[in-house]
Structure formats: structure tokens, C-alpha cells
UniProtKB/TrEMBL annotation:
It comes from the Eukaryota. SMART domains: CYCLIN (SM00385). One of its GO terms (biological process) is regulation of transcription by RNA polymerase II. It comes from Hydnum rufescens UP504. GO terms for molecular function: cyclin-dependent protein serine/threonine kinase regulator activity. This is Cyclin-like domain-containing protein. Residues 40-147, 160-248 form the Cyclin-like domain. PANTHER family: CYCLIN (PTHR10026). Residues 329-340 have a biased composition (Basic and acidic residues).
Length: 380
């Protein structure tokens, strides 16, 4: 009997190792673009369906987690995105049928077909055999997605922490809204897999205060009811009672969370997702199947049509670049904490070369037969 243990968080070294293993010969920059495209795809489908933010954020995090354990070349990221959105809808009790998700996704992936629909609320015409095939693929990936979390459906999101921490720190409404937006953008990155939600919430508030203190669109002033941006930066940049209050340390905010969220905010200015060419005959399964093969679409097919998901930018690229330089050059009296080994963690899962059997590489979640036991946490 083999055992798979749920790991809610990973160290940066573990994430880097797992990403490198699963992307194979793909460039790191290409992997980053695909993750952004997939997150934008999930966002677009969810907005058409009307999913709440919690469902969207959880689906994006599940997507990132999936490709830590499974190779990119083995699964089409559109299929994985729909499977993670389906699992997330179950976790948040906002369930939609797989067919409903697929029909909406066709409208996002193939705008030409959506344009032919006479009524705005109508469905895209697709071959029933193709829809059934995609549905079976989605349900097959669903099992793998649940295995990556060891069937632990506990949800950890930073949004409620942003509101509660902002209220405790006397953060103004405008800065709180900005911090909320930054916490949303953090789910386009791997940050939620590396840091707990309360740390992401604190990092979002700190970054919002840094942005406002330097570029100042809000010009937040200190009053009896709220702190100024400069006061928040000074407070979270030094040790104090807030560390015990929020179960975090200043060293946690001096590491990657602010920088990761900053990069996410910069990436949301314009996210371009390239959709495959709409099949000339949607009723023909053969003409559609080529766009569902694992891997990525060809350049000739992708260049036929590009769909740009425009998101309102928070700041210009120049402003964000200047802030990144400022964060890099400013003194750091409290270096990031060394994240030691986690009790009960089997590091061979992460830092051991994958075994091969019959020419196929084993994934971190693959099982060579027999009974599998899934644990919510390590046995201490």
C-alpha cells in the first residue's frame, strides 16, 4: 500500500524543482505565459457563468498545483482549466454541470462560433460526440486534480483576511480595495502554494501602501480613523505587536510575497490568449480533435485568431518597474526566514529524479498499482 500526503504549501525550492521537472523542454518563460493564459481563460469562463471570486481563485490555484505533479505535455491546459473549475465549483457549492462549463468555454475559445449564435444567451453549436468526448476527458482529469490535494477540500483564501487585517490596521477604503485587487492577482501566480492566506493578505496591504506612498493616486492622509500609506509601510516594515496579533513576522514580508504579487499586478495590464482556429465544420469530430491533443497548438493555427482579455491596469509598467527596483535596493534589516524542513515531509517526493517504467515517466502522484492511502497531513 502506498501513501500520498497532502502538502498545502511548498518552499520556493520545491516549487522550482517540481516546475522544472514537469515542463520538460519547455522554456520557463513559455510556462509562465501558459499559466497566465490559463488563469485568464478560467476568469473569462467564470465571468460568463457568474461564479464568485472564491470559486475562480480556487480553480486557478488548483490549476497551478496540478502542473506541479503532472507534465505539461500530457494534458491540454484548456482541459485542465475546465477540470479545476469544475472541482472548485463543487468545493464552494456553486456546482455547474460539466456540459454547461464546456459550452461556455467553447464560446470563449472559439469566438467565431459564438458570433454565429443569434441570441446572446444561446449555446455554441458543437458536435454532440465532441462534447461528450470533452466531458469524459474533464471527468478523467477531475480525479487527478482531487488526488493532488489528497481529497482535502479545505479552502484557504486571503480575501477575508484582507478585510479583517485592514480593519485592525486602520487602512482606508481605497487602499483596502487596492489590496483586495492585489490579493486577487496573486492567484495568477504560484504564491498561494507557497504562503498561507494571512501572509498574502499582509503582503497585499503592504504592497498597496508602497504603491500609494510612491505613486499616490489616492493620497491617503493620516486621520483619527485611518493610517496614511507611509505609516502602514513603516508599521509592517518593522517588528511590533502586529506580529503576534496576525501570527506573522516582518521577515515573512521581506521575502517573495510582495514581489510575486507585484509581478502578478504587472501581468494583468494585458493578458493575450491565443485561441485555436475555429473548425470549418464544427460537426466534424476529426476537424476538432487536432486542437485537443496534449500539448500546444501549432503556430499556423494559433496565428489565425487572437483573443485579448483586457484587464484594467492598476499601474503602468514603468511605475511597477520603478517600484521593483525600489524594493530590491531598499535596505532589508530583517532577511527572509529560512524555511526549514517540515515535520513528516518526505523530501524524496520532490528532490528525487523521477523513475521511468515502460518508457513513461512517473509523476509525483502516479501509483504503480495496489491500494493508495491519501492523508490530509503528515503523520507526526
Amino acid at each position: 500500500m502506498s501513501t500520498n500526503v497532502n502538502h498545502p504549501y511548498f518552499s520556493p525550492n520545491e516549487v522550482a524543482f517540481l516546475c522544472e521537472r514537469q515542463r520538460g523542454k519547455m522554456a520557463e518563460s513559455q510556462e509562465g505565459k501558459l499559466r497566465l493564459h490559463a488563469c485568464a481563460f478560467i476568469e473569462a469562463v467564470s465571468s460568463k457563468i457568474g461564479f464568485p471570486r472564491a470559486t475562480i481563485a480556487t480553480a486557478q490555484t488548483l490549476f497551478h498545483r496540478f502542473y506541479l505533479f503532472y507534465p505539461w505535455k500530457a494534458f491540454n491546459y484548456h482541459d485542465v482549466a475546465m477540470a479545476t473549475l469544475y472541482v472548485s465549483s463543487k468545493m464552494h457549492d456553486t456546482l455547474k454541470k460539466p456540459r454547461d462549463l464546456l459550452m461556455v468555454s467553447y464560446g470563449v475559445r472559439y469566438p467565431e462560433l459564438a458570433a454565429k449564435v443569434k441570441h446572446g444567451g444561446g449555446e455554441v453549436e458543437m458536435d454532440p460526440a465532441t462534447v461528450d468526448e470533452d466531458r469524459r476527458r474533464l471527468l478523467g482529469i477531475e480525479r487527478s486534480v482531487m488526488e493532488t490535494i489528497c481529497f482535502n477540500f479545505r479552502v484557504r483564501l486571503p480575501f477575508s483576511y484582507v478585510i479583517k487585517v485592514a480593519r485592525e490596521l486602520k487602512v482606508g477604503k481605497q487602499l483596502t480595495k487596492l489590496a483586495w485587487r492585489l490579493s486577487i492577482d496573486s492567484h495568477r501566480t504560484l504564491a498561494p502554494l507557497q504562503y498561507p492566506p494571512h501572509v498574502l493578505a499582509l503582503a497585499s496591504i503592504l504592497l498597496a501602501a508602497l504603491l500609494d506612498s510612491r505613486e499616490g493616486p489616492f493620497g491617503v492622509k493620516a486621520t483619527d480613523d485611518q493610517r496614511s500609506s507611509h505609516e502602514i509601510v513603516a508599521l509592517l516594515g518593522d517588528k511590533g505587536p502586529w506580529e503576534d496579533r496576525f501570527h506573522a513576522q516582518v521577515e515573512d514580508l521581506e521575502g517573495k510575497p510582495p514581489v510575486t504579487i507585484l509581478i502578478a499586478a504587472a501581468s494583468t495590464t494585458t493578458v493575450a490568449t491565443t485561441s485555436p482556429q475555429t473548425p470549418n465544420t464544427p460537426t466534424s469530430p476529426s476537424s476538432y480533435s487536432s486542437y485537443h491533443t496534449p500539448g500546444h497548438t501549432s503556430t499556423s493555427t494559433s496565428s489565425s485568431m487572437a483573443r485579448v482579455l483586457q484587464v484594467q491596469p492598476l499601474y503602468t509598467s514603468a511605475q511597477l518597474t520603478q517600484l521593483k527596483i525600489f524594493l530590491r535596493e531598499r535596505p532589508h534589516p530583517y532577511p527572509p526566514r529560512d524555511r526549514g524542513p517540515i515535520p513528516g515531509r518526505d523530501n524524496s517526493l520532490f528532490f528525487q529524479e523521477p523513475k521511468t517504467q515502460n518508457g513513461e515517466e512517473e509523476t509525483a502522484q502516479s501509483v504503480g498499482g495496489g491500494t493508495v492511502r491519501f492523508l490530509f497531513g503528515p503523520e507526526l
